[in-house]
Design brief:
The protein has one helix and eleven strands. It starts with 10 loop residues before the first strand and ends in a 5-residue tail after the last strand. It has one helix at residues 94-100, and strands at residues 11-18, 25-32, 35-38, 41-44, 50-53, 55-58, 64-66, 77-83, 103-104, 110-111, 127-129. Strands 7-8-1-2-3-6-9 form a seven-stranded mixed beta sheet, with no helix packed on it. A four-stranded mixed beta sheet has the order 10-5-4-11, with no helix packed on it. The chain has one domain (11-133).
């Protein structure tokens, strides 16, 4: 029996600092299984109409705060402190993956329109992987 693909209606924006880098980044996130998950990398569908997360990292593993939804807010959430750089590598060490509850290739699909940033907001840090690179 095949599990149906979940399709979230909205992406969130999470402000974070990666270990070893100085500028703040805005990472995409989504609600899945009742919590918010960071989604640093995406795999586009062959026709380019949707994308699936390569992996998802639960926001709950990091101290964070939620911002009120206003026109001035540049993100929905912000992580307090630094996020381990290894969580953004192509291949995550198993110890790091287990410690942070990483989901690899979850059954979730997002329509491409949700991945575009409105002109009045800072761009999301969205990385697409080519189908041959995973």
């Amino acid at each position: 029996m095949t599990q149906a693909m979940e399709e979230p209606k909205r992406l969130f924006r999470v402000a974070l600092y990666k270990e070893g880098t100085s500028p703040m980044e805005i990472c995409a996130a989504m609600r899945h299984a009742g919590e918010i998950w960071l989604v640093p990398d995406w795999i586009r569908s062959p026709r380019g109409r949707s994308a699936k997360p390569l992996r998802m990292i639960p926001l709950s593993k990091f101290p964070h705060k939620k911002f009120p939804r206003t026109s001035e807010a540049f993100a929905d959430y912000a992580i307090d402190g630094v996020v381990p750089k290894g969580l953004f590598d192509r291949r995550i060490p198993p110890v790091l993956s287990a410690a942070f509850g990483v989901l690899e290739r979850p059954a979730v699909r997002v329509q491409m329109g949700l991945l575009h940033t409105p002109p009045d907001r800072p761009p999301l840090s969205i990385h697409y992987l080519s189908r041959g690179s995973h």
